[in-house]
Structure formats: structure tokens, C-alpha cells
Specification:
Layout: E1 10-11, E2 21-22, H1 37-49, H2 54-63, H3 70-96, E3 100-114, E4 117-129, E5 135-140, H4 155-161, E6 165-168, E7 177-180
Parallel strand pairs: 3-6
Antiparallel strand pairs: 1-2, 3-4, 4-5, 6-7
Helix pairs in contact: 1-3
Length: 182
């Protein structure tokens, strides 16, 4: 791990009472933030590509001499996902504009606070694959086609935005195969 310390010199001309100037800040995910883009990129790759929970990453950072809280790591993930939102939107345009879109849902156990207690609830991770193998993932708080939490896009919402063919795994139903969305 490399810790970069940014020291920014302040300069001003006392004789002419000129404006105070300061060197530019280093690259940070959030203006005024503590962590740089390399650290946050690694945090995201370790979490989403390699499946390493933030708590385990926090323990690893502590062993390396960088004490950081789970909430701080969670904030970094949240801010980074906001910065990546334009890429997500571009991927959704490709997937929804595909002639054939593939769709599948996988149940995902998630811890949620309900009535003051942590409970294990079942949500769904929906995978949408379009042309050129562009893949889009969406999490919903239920496995149903409708009635997700406000602001969540469920499979019914995505299907209504797609006008081509859809290949889906309909589970045990006999309706598996290619559906034409009108």
C-alpha cells in the first residue's frame, strides 16, 4: 500500500497584497476527501469483482497500518457509485436497445434493519445482458416483478423499456424461451 501525503504550499505577495494562491489538490474521489482514486478503485474491485466484504477489507487495511471504519469504506463505495452512474446509464442504453436482451434473477440474502432488529431478507439481483455482451445488474428488495421499494427498477420496468426479443429463465414454468415484447 502506498500512502501519498499531499502538501500544498500557500504563496502570497506581501509587498503588493496579492491574492493567496495554493497548489492543486491531488486526485480524490470526493473533493476534500481522504482517499485517492486508486484506493477507491481497488476497494470497488475487491468488493464487487472478488467478493471481499468491506469488513474484511477494513481488517486487511488495519493489518497494513491503515485504520479505517466500515462506515468510511461504505461512504467511499457510495460516492464512487455516484461517479460511475453515467457508465451505468450508458450500459442500460445498450442493453435496452439490443435486439435480444437476456434476463435472469438470482435470490440474494441481505441484512436489513426492521423494527429495530437486524433481519435477513431475500432480495434479487437481476442480470440483463444485451448486444456485445454488455451486462447490467440491478438489485431489488423483492423477487417480484412489481412492488419493489420506491425508486427501484424491477424486471417489469425494464421489460417495458425494451422493444426487442427477451430471453429469460422462467424457472419451473413452461413459458421459458424467447418472448416478443410489444
Amino acid at each position: 500500500m502506498v500512502v501519498r501525503v499531499d502538501r500544498r504550499e500557500k504563496l502570497a505577495c506581501e509587498d503588493c497584497e496579492g491574492e493567496l494562491v495554493r497548489a492543486d489538490k491531488g486526485d480524490k474521489v470526493v473533493d476534500g476527501g481522504k482517499f485517492g482514486t486508486t484506493f477507491v478503485s481497488k476497494l470497488l474491485v475487491d468488493k464487487y469483482r472478488d467478493g471481499l466484504p468491506l469488513n474484511c477489507q477494513r481488517q486487511r487495511f488495519a493489518r497494513m497500518g491503515l485504520p479505517v471504519s466500515n462506515s468510511t469504506l461504505g461512504d467511499q463505495v457510495g460516492w464512487a457509485t455516484e461517479l460511475l452512474r453515467p457508465l451505468w446509464r450508458a450500459a442500460s442504453v445498450v442493453v435496452l436497445g439490443s435486439g435480444i436482451m437476456q434476463l435472469d434473477g438470482t435470490g440474494l440474502a441481505v441484512r436489513r434493519k426492521s423494527q429495530g432488529k437486524m433481519q435477513l431478507k431475500l432480495g434479487t439481483l437481476w442480470g440483463y445482458i444485451g448486444d456485445h455482451e454488455t451486462t447490467l445488474y440491478l438489485y431489488t428488495s423483492t423477487g417480484k416483478k412489481l412492488r419493489q421499494r420506491p425508486g427501484e427498477l424491477g424486471p417489469e420496468d425494464m421489460l417495458s423499456r425494451h422493444s426487442g426479443y427477451t430471453v429469460l429463465d422462467a424457472g419451473d414454468n413452461r413459458d421459458e424461451g424467447i418472448l416478443k415484447m410489444v
